[in-house]
C-alpha cells in the first residue's frame, strides 16, 4: 500500500501542476481542505515507512538526489505561489485521511503564516576566513600584540619558548573574537531590513567542504524584495572593503529560499 510523501503547503489556488514526484514516474498532486493545499505524491511503503526511511537517510547515495529534488520542488512552489510552508525531507503520512485531518486542524495557523510571510524573502549569510591570511594580518595591525612580542624577546631563551606558546594561544583567541565581531557587525547592518533573523551554529570544515573557517552563519527574513536588494548592496560594499584590506574574509549570501527557518508551525499543546 503506497504512502503519502508531503513536500509542503500552499494556499488553495496556487498549486503548480506538472511537477515530478520524489520517485521516478510519479507526479506531485495536491490534497486540499479549508483553503490549504498540501503538495504530495505517492511513495512505496518498502522505502518510506518509518524503519526503511531511517535506514535510507543514512545512505548518502539514496539520499542525495532525493533531498536535492525535495528542495527543488519547494523552490518551484515558492516561485509559483510566492508563499509556501516547506516541510523537512522525509515527511510521510500513511493515509490521506491523516493529511486531511492535519489540514483541518492547522488551517488557521497556516493562513496566519501565509499572511505573515507574504512578500518576504529568506536569505542566508555566511562568513568565511582564510586564517593563513587573516591571522598574520590581524597581528600586524594590533599594537599591543607587537608590544607583547617585544617583551618576550627580552626574556631568557628558555622562557621565551613557553611565553611564545602562551602568546600563540592568546592570539588565536583574539583573532577568533575579532572574526566574531565582524560577523556581528554585518549582522547589525542587515537587521534593520529584516522581519526576523536567526544566528545558527557555524559548520566544521568537514561539513562545509571548505578550506576556510566558517565564522558566521545566519539566516534572515527580509521585509520584501527591496529590503533584500538593499542588504545585498550593503554586503557587496563590505566585501569590497574586506578584499581591499586583504583580510582573507569572504562574505557569502544566498537566496531567496523557501522560508524553512521562519514558516514553522508550532506544536499544539495537548491535555490529558
From TrEMBL:
Keyword Transferase among UniProt keywords: no
GO biological process: gas vesicle organization
Annotated Gene Ontology cellular component terms: gas vesicle
Record keywords, A-Z: Gas vesicle
Signal peptide: none
InterPro entries: GvpL/GvpF
Subcellular location: Gas vesicle
Coiled coil: none
Keyword Iron recorded: no
Similarity annotation: Belongs to the gas vesicle GvpF/GvpL family.
PANTHER family: PROTEIN GVPL 2
Protein name: GvpL/GvpF family gas vesicle protein
Annotated source species: Alkalicoccus luteus
Amino acid at each position: 500500500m503506497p504512502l503519502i510523501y508531503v513536500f509542503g503547503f500552499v494556499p488553495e489556488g496556487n498549486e503548480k501542476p506538472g511537477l515530478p514526484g520524489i520517485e521516478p514516474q510519479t507526479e506531485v498532486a495536491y490534497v486540499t481542505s479549508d483553503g490549504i493545499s498540501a503538495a504530495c505524491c505517492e511513495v512505496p511503503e518498502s522505502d518510506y515507512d518509518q524503519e526503511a526511511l531511517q535506514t535510507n537517510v543514512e545512505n548518502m547515495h539514496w539520499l542525495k538526489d532525493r533531498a536535492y529534488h525535495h528542495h527543488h520542488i519547494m523552490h518551484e512552489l515558492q516561485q509559483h505561489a510566492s508563499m509556501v510552508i516547506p516541510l523537512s525531507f522525509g515527511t510521510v503520512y500513511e493515509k490521506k485521511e491523516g493529511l486531511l485531518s492535519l489540514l483541518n486542524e492547522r488551517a488557521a495557523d497556516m493562513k496566519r503564516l501565509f499572511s505573515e510571510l507574504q512578500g518576504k524573502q529568506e536569505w542566508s549569510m555566511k562568513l568565511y576566513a582564510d586564517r593563513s591570511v587573516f591571522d598574520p594580518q590581524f597581528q600586524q595591525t594590533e599594537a599591543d600584540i607587537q608590544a607583547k612580542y617585544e617583551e618576550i624577546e627580552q626574556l631568557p631563551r628558555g622562557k621565551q619558548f613557553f611565553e611564545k606558546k602562551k602568546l600563540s594561544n592568546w592570539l588565536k583567541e583574539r583573532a577568533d573574537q575579532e572574526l566574531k565581531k565582524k560577523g556581528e557587525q554585518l549582522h547589525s547592518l542587515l537587521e534593520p531590513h529584516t522581519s526576523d533573523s536567526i544566528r545558527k551554529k557555524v559548520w566544521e570544515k568537514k561539513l562545509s567542504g571548505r578550506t576556510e573557517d566558517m565564522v558566521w552563519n545566519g539566516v534572515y527574513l527580509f521585509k520584501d524584495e527591496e529590503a533584500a536588494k538593499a542588504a545585498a548592496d550593503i554586503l557587496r560594499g563590505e566585501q569590497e572593503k574586506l578584499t581591499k584590506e586583504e583580510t582573507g574574509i569572504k562574505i557569502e549570501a544566498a537566496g531567496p529560499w523557501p522560508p524553512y527557518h521562519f514558516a514553522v508551525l508550532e506544536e499544539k499543546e495537548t491535555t490529558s
